[in-house]
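User: My collaborator sent over this chain with a note saying "see what the structure looks like." That's all I know about it. Can you take a look?
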Amino acid sequence: MKRGRFGAVAVAAVAALLVVGAGSGLAGGAPTDGTAAATVDTGSAIVQLNGDPLSTYVKTKPPKGKKIDFSSNTVKSYRAQLSALRNDFKQWLRQNARDAKVNGEFDLALNAVSVELNGTALSTIATAPMVKSAQFQGLYAPAGHDDPDLALMSAFQAWTDPDAGAGAKGAGVEVAIIDTGIDTRHPCFGSGSTNGGTNAKVIFSGVFNMRANNRGYTPADLQGHGTHVAGTVACIEHTPAVLDGVVIPYDPSGVAPQARLGNFNVFPADVLNARSEDILNALEAAYQQGFDVANMSLGGGQGGIQDLLSIAVDNLDEANMVSAVAAGNAGPGFSTVSSPGHAPRALTAGAATVGHFVGVEVTRGAVTARAASGEFAVVPVDLTRPVGAPAGPGAAGLSQGCSALPSLSGQIALIARGVCTFSTKIRNAQAAGADAVIIVNNVGGDPVAMAQDGTPSQPTIPAYMVSLADGTALKAAVSNATIEAARTYFFTGNSNIMAGFSGQGPTDVDFRVKPDVVAQGVNVLSSQPNFVCSTPPCWAFFQGTSMSTPHLAGAAAVVIGQHPSWDAWEVRSSIVNTADQNVLLNSNGVGLNQNVNIIGAGRANLFSAVNAMVALDHVSVSFGAVPSGSGQSDSRTVNLSTLSGSGPYTVEVTNETGAGVDFGATISGNAISVTMSAGKGIPAGNRQGILRVKKDGVEIAHAAVYAFIK
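Assistant: Without extra context I'll predict from the sequence alone. Here is the result:
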């Protein structure tokens, strides 16, 4: 949907790398339980120049509800000025840093260039008089009953809302998938003849990876991550699914099944890292081609408040393109949300469970457990063996199997999840003589489909995962165990459990609330490229904030389809500030999680989003770090936009936690003043509350309020 687009601008697909800001990658997939090193590329830099980019410059930024008019003389003139500034910088390099070379230029999301340093110190580049900021490039990596995914976020109700209109399911809206590619041959995307091709559903396809530019890579998805993400966003409604011979008892749909997609492949072929410039190139190309939403199921390091990729995301949001971004998979832990998900104007996704999976039954005595199958071998016929359960510090008191195990000859090994990859555990059990392995989950909820870690000599014995509860029961039982060969689809009640891996706030340095909101990110079923299975079309269960992010991108597409005049910040607020409260559980499955830096505003509810009555220009309110000895008072202003109906409105802050800090709120016109008063000498730690906006005594929006006492 080209909202307010005055002219089409053709943009060549520039090869660019998707970065892991200060180290990052794809924020999810089938879990291997390995760890990925977060790094920066010290051989290259993003250099921000003085002067605003087109997205924020006062004379070129778009008016409310519009996009930049690239055909206007004002825009052309300012672009020429920015080009001249970049030429001045190139001239400065020739005189002061001859080895450094500019290899990319940006003027939309950032006024910046990318530079190959070729041995030049970053500090030297920063001394140029036209340079505002210079930083190493980050490296990012890939993040009957109705479809349970969509039911959890009330998508069906949103589609069928009487006021939804022609854009009810995202029709006319375009979503850029910045990922590993899209296999358009999958029926989720209509009729495609080639992996990475275009058709009526996938309207653009290109490679954006500077370092892969000369290797002849195509936009084809050879990793599977992007095709999975794209299916979650916009798989054609009611596409039949069969996984490992098991007929899924519902026909999956994307969150916005009538939206169109763009394949902006920053991880072509087997490339696992992309740089900041690659993502910037993809973002700017997507914007200039009219895409309304960008999905970035990827993550890097934290980057801090001056992270340039995060600034670019913010700038494009101001120019009316919504960016849904993964919180990352570095949780649990304080300040584990990644770049660019920590951007203030990113729509940042945390992850929770969906209660379903495909697997088999395992019996031992009176215990019957359900076990998920994945990328490892499965039993061809029922297998009955004694159980070997080596003791250790892992879940259910079991060994985690990360080093040599005692003899398990002729046994089914029972091993705890955690510390090392699944491949390592299963390989060690096989070396100890085991005939099969059952991994016991170490968090609450259902088991997940395990993935191999890509190392040579993968284990060949059958392997499955069971839940923590089932694993504990299997260990306590006596007699032999039987792994059944017949696979089936299991629908459970284990939804809405926060994923332990989901990146958590507050953000580094400035201590803002992130993620913004939570969506489904564990045991998410979606499309896969044809090469993944022997009988396409292929499907798989993936986990990660990579999987929750496209739920938000699809939600944004539906909101835009139904409300094309809303600005990007109003779209974000409609999703965040109407989220379901008091439904998300702790990662062990016990008790409600109320920590705003884990759950944000709650679980996304698409029906509530499309019916939002107001929008808040700050989806959460953060007071940053407050010295414990200061006795400080402070205030923040949140501007309210009326989306439907009219005021007057009332406000209050409730659900305050932690002693010594009082939050309050007042409203004058459409300006909400949120106050914080911290007592002198109070204990350090987190303080939070919930800002509630009401009309006629009924809540119509809410936002997290947070301060960190240091």
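A starting point for your reply to your collaborator: Residues 329 and 501 are 5 Å apart (CA to CA).
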